[in-house]
Amino acid sequence: MNEVHFWESETLYFDSDKFYRALILEMDGAGKSIEMEVYTFEDGVLAGRLVDCFERAVQRGVRVRLICDHWGSPLIGDRLHHRLDQIGVKVHVYRSLPWRPILLLKGKGKGGFLSELGNFCRTLARLNRGFHRKVTIIDGNSAWVSSLNVTDVHLREVHGEQAWRDIGVRLQGREVLLLSQAFERTFFRRNSPRNRNLEKHGLVNLNDSFWLRRKMNFLLRKRIKSASHRIWIQNPYFLPERSLLWALCLQARRGRDVRIMIPEKSDHEVIRWMNYGILVKLLKCGATVWQFRPAFAHKKVLLIDASVSIGSTNLNHRSFLHDLEVEVILSQPSSKEATNASFVEDEAISHPISLEELERKSLWFKIFNRILFFFRYWC
């Protein structure tokens, strides 16, 4: 693995309300630029606060840009998108929905019909390639990296104890430049300079090019295969591709402490149906599996020996093959200890899944699981 350097500062957030309060406070002090990228930007209490913050920033002369995925943000159109445009926020909607020619016929298209038809064909060609990063960069100086979208489901003040559980971190250091460069490449859909010297530090993993994707996937497998004592995974969409599953099974058979934590409550129930066979394999190899019960756990945490990483990456085919993701490696001992403690605390209020429990599932459930499993490539 690449030599790991240190972030200049790391501030972890295990509370989404505190994360967004601190983020908005820092954005209110921005002097040059605010660059936000999320999968979902959904109208609501949180979006309203962020848009108000954007408006204050633009009035101060700050450049504000936003990237979101249209599949994750189908409601960004109309009123919300119009207000963002009005206040001067530059919005790039990644993978926009393919029916723009139809909207044109209704008088909502911006270009001519042939132009919109060309957009339609290009959209179809990249329909399965999504944008899933969650990063906000302020003045090119600090980066807020998390698994949090802009949607009220993350806020306890709105949903109480049923709010989604997530994790985020505020980072400062030279490697923030890598995240800024990735934003530029995506916003303008073009190749921009990459600082390969900073990439060698191994603090940021991105997959927005063919070679970066290969590198990110290779490093993930390598870290798992080289683990000497533990692999702890907390992920809401656990459908690892075959080579990753084999690596986890091999490490479990070797006696490594392999723990998988998935949510009992999910926003995509089909995932819970599909991963039955995967969990059976892991349990037979000696891994332990836990279901987090209190609420939907949306955290993406990977603890391998002394290495701790968080970000937007799901352990499924979408993240491995299709979607644009980001992962950051935490470098400060206090951050690692806090993430480790959070995992242990979540485990204490989770339900351990046994092999006997899964094998008691009905025959029709097992048959249905095998049928659904063929569609894992798109999940």
Explain what this protein looks like in three dimensions:
It is built from 16 helices and 15 strands. It is of the alpha+beta class and 379 residues long. The chain has an 8-stranded mixed β-sheet, sandwiched between helices. The chain has a 7-stranded mixed β-sheet with strand order 1-7-6-5-2-3-4, with helices on both faces. α3 (79-87) links the parallel β3 (63-69) and β4. α9 (210-225) runs parallel beside α10 (242-253) and α10 runs parallel beside α12 (276-285).
Largest sheet: 8 strands, mixed
CATH-defined topology of the domain at 204-378:
Endonuclease, Chain A
Number of helices: 16
CA-based shape: globular
**Roughly how many Å is the radius of gyration?**
21 Å
* Proportion of helical residues: 40-55%
Task: Tell me the structural class.
Answer: alpha+beta
Summarize the structure.
The chain has 379 residues and is α+β, with helices and mostly antiparallel strands.
Question: What's the helix and strand layout?
Answer:
Layout: E1 9-13, H1 16-27, E2 33-38, H2 45-59, E3 63-69, H3 79-87, E4 90-94, H4 100-105, H5 113-125, E5 135-138, E6 142-146, H6 156-159, E7 168-172, H7 176-188, H8 196-199, E8 204-206, H9 210-225, E9 230-234, H10 242-253, E10 257-263, H11 269-274, H12 276-285, E11 288-292, E12 301-304, E13 307-311, H13 317-322, E14 326-330, H14 333-348, E15 350-353, H15 355-359, H16 363-373
Helix pairs in contact: 9-10, 10-12
